[in-house]
Amino acid sequence: MAPSYHLVYFDIRGRAEPIRILFALAGASYTEERVNPSEWPALKTSGRCPFGQVPVLELGDGKSLCQSAVILKYVANELGFSPSDSYAKAQAEMFVDSIKDFQNELQRLAREKAADPKDEKKSSLYDAEIAKTLEIIDNLLQQKNGGKSYLLPVLELGDGKSLCQSSVILRYVANELGFTPSDSYGKARAEVFVDALKDLENQFGRFIWEKDADRKAKMKSSLYDEEIPKNLEFIDKLFQQNNGGKGYLVGDKIVNCC
Ligand SMILES: N[C@@H](CCC(=O)N[C@@H](CS)C(=O)NCC(=O)O)C(=O)O
Fold first, then answer.
1. Where are the alpha helices (DSSP H) in the chain?
2. Minimum-distance ligand 1 atom for the alpha carbon of 69
3. Does 54 sit in the ligand 1 pocket, CB within 6 Å?
4. pTM of the model
5. pLDDT tens, 74-115?
6. Using a 6 Å cutoff on CB, does residue 199 contact ligand 1?
């Protein structure tokens, strides 16, 4: 039976648009739920959004995925848009993760810029971030610097092959060493946890480096009093759903997320 894809997101392009583009390129059929802001609070707590966020891709039979990059990779794989060998796959994922880092940073800078539009320092930081990321991507594309990235960590594999982006390296090594589930849905579910924890890690990084004492205190309370407990609650719920809470977050053995 052909898989059914139901994409849940807001009525904007945002994080769902690359997924929609892949469906369009493949000519695959899918349904969409474009949620309006007044419907969001109920949906957020309905249990349909594993980490209380969208996009979510529902696959039928109670299966669903969140985390836009995980959905994108899963759909790319299913629809024949990812390379077949594991190194080329990891290379493609390096771009996805580098662009994601870029999006996160741009969003933060855009928020700061909007709060203080006259602050030229913020505008130039915004431009500098765009230039820095484009240079990294350009280096990767043109195989400059021997194809190596100057983002650490880097995993060198011999024969001039190397990978950057910590979660790409983690997934590649997990795959090579037998720590990923064998089915594509199980694999994607493991990646949801890796990406959700990375979202938290990003917030933590911002808090650690914040120099303004007032802002740092606000970030700390948002992180420790809201974000961490909320995410642990989501993880606990998902854990309870897997094997009745006996064992692991995904499947029945240690995989790349746990
Ligand atoms: N890392 C996640 C981030 C998801 C995210 O931030 N989603 C936003 C919309 S773009 C959301 O659901 N916001 C509403 C909320 O958090 O209540 C991903 O890439 O999917």
1. 17-26, 40-44, 68-78, 86-115, 120-142, 166-176, 184-209, 213-221, 228-241
2. 19
3. yes
4. 0.88
5. 999 999 999 999 999 998 888 888 888 888 877 877 887 787
6. yes
